[in-house]
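User: Structure with guanosine-5',3'-tetraphosphate, tokens only please.
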Amino acid sequence: MSTLAQEVARRRTFAIISHPDAGKTTLTEKLLLYGGAIQMAGAVRARGAQRRTRSDWLAIERERGISVTASVMSFEHAGLAFNLLDTPGHEDFSEDTYRTLSAVDSAVMVLDAARGIEARTRKLFEVCRLRDVPIVTFVNKIDREGREPFDLLDEIEKTLALDVTPLAWPIGMGGTLKGVYDLIGDRVLLAPRLSEAEGEVERAEAIPLALEDGRLDALVGAEAAARLREEVALVRGACPPFDLGAFRAGHLTPVYFGSALRNFGVRELLDGIGRLAPAPGLRPAEPQPVAPDGEEVTGFVFKVQANMDPLHRDRMAFFRQCSGRFRRGMKLTHLRSGKAITVASPVFFLARERGLAEEAYPGDIVGIPNHGSLRIGDTLTEGSAIRFTGIPNFAPEILRRVRLDDPMKAKQLRRALENLSEEGVSRLFKPLNGSAWIVGVVGPLQFDVLAHRIRSEYDLRAGFEDAPFETARWIAGGEKSEIERFVSANSQAMAEDPDGALVFLARNAWALGRAQEDFPKLTFAAVREQA
Ligand code: G4P
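Assistant:
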């Protein structure tokens, strides 16, 4: 196998999806411990604890350093290279999360054993399903009283319409938790005592032991052993056997049980991701999908962070590599502008040797500092004219009009709004009738964040007022004359996005429905793929 093929084969690029409080931060931290990224783990913890409140979130977000290091965490374990992409915790940032999910090859779904599938887990799962991202399930917090494991499996199967196959089974739960039984390897993993577990890599080795073996009774107690045998018989009867193909196609989820806090079952999960989750594969692109072992470097930008250094107004574009071997100093072609860019100072996210790496492979994320030329959805290649597809741009759900406190600074404000909208979290619309800009977001907290950043990063004062619009749709399709007719019939509700694409700002759902009825040849897209 070539070096490139070997490097591709050992990459696992994944994200963790969960409802807030299910344990994503704790699990991330424990996973990083396996890669020796202990300092980084501290950073994750600090962030998890602080982002709970609004003001703390702002404070932490100002320390851009932390949020960037924690955006991508790369670590090595058992000969594999893992790239864990962080997704923002607050639901107002869901759009950012959706795009991050377009850059992974698999996801871990963390459930709280007492709560099961919650609203946000479900929403995020649906996004994964759009792309058939394979999902490994981790039922967390089994050190506390939770719901019956059968009940949880049933819920996953029913609410997500997904086959479930447990690969491990808890021996007791909460106060009676003894350990976990590995259903594939027929091994018992004993739960550590709390004092042993805190902050450390799992020490206990799994003990190979058949279910029927009498020693199991001595190990976990006769009652727990009998119950385990009974439950495993039921599980094996009721759940389909694990099928790698079905998992990789996104139709079946393997389920692990454990406790992130007590660092129990985490190594099994990590080994499971290593063994089962796919290495980088074919990526959807036009005119044809891109295979990872192609010699030419290709990839796309899925996230942009502006103003990481307020003095220099630079941005960091997060580039998901899809093929080839990337080297520092490479020249890549930026498809949208047709220009060549030299990637002189890429940022690699290796936990231990951050910044020292000189090369990257498919599945890796490379941070590319730039001055605003790179945008979400942009494709970079060594020359071929391909375009990666499927990086969504969602219609904002809340629209407000920008109010500038000092009209002399309109130009500066426009620049600030454009810069910030390039990060992709807010949308900027310029009404065609010349009235003040409209900003759209997916969650209302974004307005506070925007106002705060406009003040602190650009020294401008702006506010956001109610606008008479509820939603926005990108207009496409139809003859030019049809579009012109639509624009003149709705002149007070038309706007352009910063790319010059035509947008209809609808007063409410009724107005949108009416417009669609009156102009059946036009499409009103709620999601626009990045130009
Ligand atoms: P999140 O990122 O998904 O929002 O969750 P996070 O890891 O911050 O965990 C949420 C809470 O659940 C934390 O408690 C955390 O300690 C706890 N937790 C995580 N995993 C487990 C587990 O396996 N077992 C138990 N019993 N608890 C777990 P907290 O009190 O809200 O925060 P903290 O004071 O511990 O930081």
